[in-house]
Amino acid sequence: MSAVTGQAGAVPGHKSKAGRASSGQASSGKGSSGKASSGKASSGTAPGGHNPWLIAGVVALATFMEVLDTTIANVALRYISGGLAVGPDEAAWVVTSYLVANAITLTASSFLAKRYGRKAFFMWSVGLFTVASILCGFAWSLESLLFFRVLQGLGGGGMAPLAQSILADSFPPEKRGQAFALYGVAIVVAPVIGPTLGGWLSDNASWHWCFLINGPVGVIALGLMHWLIEDSEAAKKERRALVRRGIRFDSVGFLLVALFLGSLEVILDEGQRKDWFGTSTLMNVSGVLMVVSFVAMIPWLLNAKNPVVDLRLIGNRQFGSCFVVMMFTGAILISTTQFIPQITQEYYGYTATLSGLVLGPGGIVTVVMMFLTGRASAFLQPKWLIATGMAIVALGMYDLTRIDGTTTFSFFAWSRVYIGIGLPMVFLSITSASYEGIRKDQTDQASALINVARNVGGSMGVSLAQNILAYRGQFHQSRLAESVNSTAPAYQETMRQATQYFSEHGYAGVEAKSQATAWIGSVLSTQVAYWAYIDVFWVLGVVAACAVPIALSLKSVKRGGGAPAGH
């Protein structure tokens, strides 16, 4: 399902008009001689004279690999936790560190691609992602895994927007809709396969293979890219213009953004375990870095000539509202993708494979809804689709608050189906809504920021949900302990029956009573966990519900034009 997540700006490419690119891609159709300048796009070949469909296949393969990694590790967290001897909350860093690093790269991907060439930057991104994936597979500790996971996220962050630009350059306008359709199918299928594949690999081989599997795919993709992909004449001309004008990368702004997001994530991930800002040096230092980088970041980005992030876009009411809705959406999607497999494995005895299969039906529904929503967007305003989608997601979250000890596989699968119905309506529509009222030269930034919102929202959602789970678990444990009285008739009757049960199964005297006491404690702990997870789903439901009025406040847009094709 995070396929849609992975590419907020890609989906409109299903429409033929969506091939319009923001950074000169659409204008690459003609050079000074009046002929197509992007190679021979008008005659059916891409820059370099290669078949554009081969390029589309390579681009889809590389992005498939990157999107797969947004979900493949989620169901393997229990194995990672056990293999590296860390707690489940610490293992969650495997998800959040990747998302934050991915978001940081997204802010820089547009400029770096223009400055150094799309082919070069795309190959660099795929190469770093592939090497980091292999290193993740050989990680020997949580610290090493997180470091390699950050490198993997830095590599993966540039792949999605660059893929869209390369497709726009490789196909003539009348063929771009078909190219983006192929690309869209690849990015939607990847997260459907991810949880099941990750679960199967973890159960039958090792969690390491969730990362090692990217090795051969990445090597093949790199070889094909080197052979097939060439930058268009328009992209080369733009690169020469940047060099000639002496425009430099906003390294200071990039560093401040990275420092702010990184320190914020440390605080969210470690706060509960470190007792926040009490005595922890890590928390206090992270807090200072977050505040200082944020205070310095705002004036710098507002006054820099070529800021890495255009903050004025977020200040735009239309785009800012879309940014917030996308953050909420990312939080819900990534959190549920992690917490549903987590609860089914820990408290329902599911294998990792079965936990992955729980998410499968929702992923299939997502694929179907992608196409249905694409058709509906031709005659319905984005704000209505977004509001409807978030309302359905809120109902899906409410449904998950009904879990108990008898909850079945089909219950979890149906709850995920409801989410799979609602989220595509948001992801497909929010791109069109976000581009309303912004200048053409801002579309690169808009595409990057919408993707940043998704990743940052997902990372924050996982961290906050983990904190809610821990805090509410402690709360329910203390309240339940207050109500359990060893002198109460109900408790004594339960103890008597449990002791008798263990006596009949080979335990004698004091040992049977000890087993009964342990069993009651286990039942109570499980009940506490159910209540804590219910609280998490309640909060996510409220988040989804809060997005509905924000969506309804959006302006109406001109339908049928599609969105720019990203970077």
Automatic annotation (TrEMBL):
UniProt keyword Transmembrane present: yes
Subcellular location: Cell membrane
Membrane topology: Multi-pass membrane protein
Domain of life: Bacteria
Identification of the protein by name: DHA2 family efflux MFS transporter permease subunit
Domain Major facilitator superfamily (MFS) profile: 55-559
Keywords for this protein: Cell membrane, Membrane, Transmembrane, Transmembrane helix, Transport
Region named Disordered: 1-46
Classification via InterPro entries: EmrB-like, MFS, MFS_dom, MFS_trans_sf
Signal sequence coordinates: none
Transmembrane region(s): 53-80, 92-113, 120-140, 146-168, 180-200, 206-229, 249-268, 280-302, 322-341, 347-372, 384-401, 413-435, 530-552
Chain intervals with Low complexity compositional bias: 19-46
A matching Pfam family: MFS_1
